[in-house]
Amino acid sequence: MQKILEQAVKKGLQKICNVTIDSVEFQATKKDFEGDFTIVVFAFLRLIKGNPVEIGTKLGEYLVENVTEVSSFNVVKGFLNLVISDSYFLNSFNTIYKIENFGFVTPNPKAKAVMVEYSSPNTNKPLHLGHIRNNLLGYSVAEIIAASGKKVYKTQIINDRGIHICKSMLAWQRYGNGETPESTSLKGDKLVGNYYVKFDQEYKKEITKLIAKGKTEEEAKKQAPILVEAQQMLRKWEAGDTEVVALWKKMNQWVFDGFDITYTALGVNFDKNYYESNTYLLGKDVVAEGLKKGIFFKKEDGSVWIDLTEEGLDEKIVLRADGTAVYMTQDIGTAIERFKDFDLESLIYTVGNEQDYHFKVLFLILSKLGYTWAKNCYHLSYGMVDLPSGKMKSREGTVVDADDLMLEMTNTARSISQELGKLEGYSTEEKEVLYKTIGLGALKYYILKVDPKKRILFNPEESVDFAGNTGPFIQYTYARIQSILRKANFDYQITLSKVNEVSLHEKERSLIKQLLLFPEIIQNAAANHSPALIANYTYDLVKEYNSFYQTVPILGCENEQEKIRRTQLSEKVGKIIKAAFKLLGINVPERM
RNA sequence: GGCUCCAUAGUUCAAGGGAUAGAAUAGAAGUUUCCUAAACUUUAGAUCCAGGUUCGAGUCCUGGUGGAGUCACCA
Predict the structure, then answer these.
(1) Phi/psi of residue A227, each to 5°?
(2) Which nucleotide has the least CA–C1' distance to A390?
(3) Which CATH superfamily is domain A2-84 in?
(4) Which sequence spans correspond to the domains of chain A?
(5) Tens digit of pLDDT for each residue in A90-124?
(6) Measured in angstroms, what separates residue A308's CA from nucleotide B63's C1'?
(7) What does A450-479 look like in DSSP terms, one character per residue?
(8) B37 C1' closest Cα residue
(9) What is the pTM of this model?
């Protein structure tokens, strides 16, 4: 439609004012004005001298005359509002009604793929609310990009080695008494996480003792025996000490098992995992190579650096004096490995905005190393999830645990549901599945509806809402539609004829308009890496539908054609809700 | 301190340089003989401050103020 209009507007302006315009921008007409599309005439004023109202009027007249779909127009100030005919909307609806995956673009199998990295946890503590945002965001962005017509690989880098891992290992060794997930009935990640906290407590005690003995705080922090021992353990690990490696494997496995449970509950998955323990060496070779080429330089103590002062950044270390890898080294290696493993067009890193600087440097280094794809790396930077008390810190136990939160959401869904008592005939199992669907729907929507860039302040005292602009609200609308479809005991999936003779209810028009936007929204969300756009769109659609549902009869229509049309409309809205929510990783229930 | 990001109803979020800044929630008032009231309808309430660019600024630029992040041989 917009294409037809654009052509016509260009031609019209040519004729009226003898001016050629490259492109015309349309916007949806605001609610308070009559019309469907709006052309801002002010935009032409740079090229055409004259009164905007006059130009708008002339253009409007031209369009009504030459474009059959335009039935009338009005000009307010410099805004030309076009009214599109009902038959156009009806025909459009009939077309999209039959398109099964309306809005989704099938990827070209030969095209290069997009890789999305997300989650990327440390294997020394359980996942918390911050990880939930990361996972939901990464998963959803991957789904959206796939829907927009790209092949997508989901991946993560598992930070499974380093001093932080040794800390929980050491604490377990010292204080664990051989505890296992089985013996304690704890999830593996929870058990290991407890020892990470335990380490920190002991470490702090030792620091206090040392300071009491007259050491400075700085000395104490470096000399605390438990820390020294952890460092020793790391060296043993790097040297391949069988005992340490065995312990490392055992405890990592506990954590992986725990993570799997959380990932499954969250509904996220990965096509390929990268492990830092496998890739940390790769970066070192690249650094050695870059050193030869003069991209990096060595300091007296043997550490290797890159000078980015010309680019307005600092010097950055890429290899420690003792030759061991740092975070950056590993990331360089992993990126190169990924482009080797897959035929990638781009690589998206879903990582919090506290690492903005790190990724700026990483991409710059990769580009200096001569990798042309470095410009196709993108840091999907999102805001932190903070508590009213400030930042979440695992070591200090000030975190909202992922599993606990999901459980809590399910419990809330259960109690609301039981209070409403609409689930006659559902088995206990069916009900439990439903509670999870609703509870997680509330949580996921709550997080994804916010622009990724913005930080989220989560107050555990105030629970996540289940009414208003929420996941359950949208799920509820879906369930209601399914109820209508169950009760529609006639064949509504037929093709309607005589579309040119009927007129639409105002609510039907706006509903169809909203449906037609879906493909554009997907493309937009993919381009902006923003699930929030999908969430907002779905909310608007549902709002529109509820209003429609409340004001006009559907199954109760006297007119047969109208009844079928409104049932079809309901069905399509349901399908779009389901598809849109799938992009957010949220399920929809048949009843609730 | 340098750099980066953020600032919109009491609160949580919207607004591709465009019209009278939208929702939700909390507040006030209504709607169940009818397709699920987790809904619908009505009502009141906001762009941090000062300049500038523009026909037009919540949005772009400059300077303040307030907040967050970062500037590690941690990841």
Answers:
(1) -70, -45
(2) B68
(3) Arginyl tRNA synthetase N-terminal domain (3.30.1360.70)
(4) 2-84, 162-274
(5) 999 999 999 999 999 999 989 999 999 999 899 99
(6) 30
(7) S-TTS-EE--TTSPPPSSSSSHHHHHHHHH
(8) A420
(9) 0.95
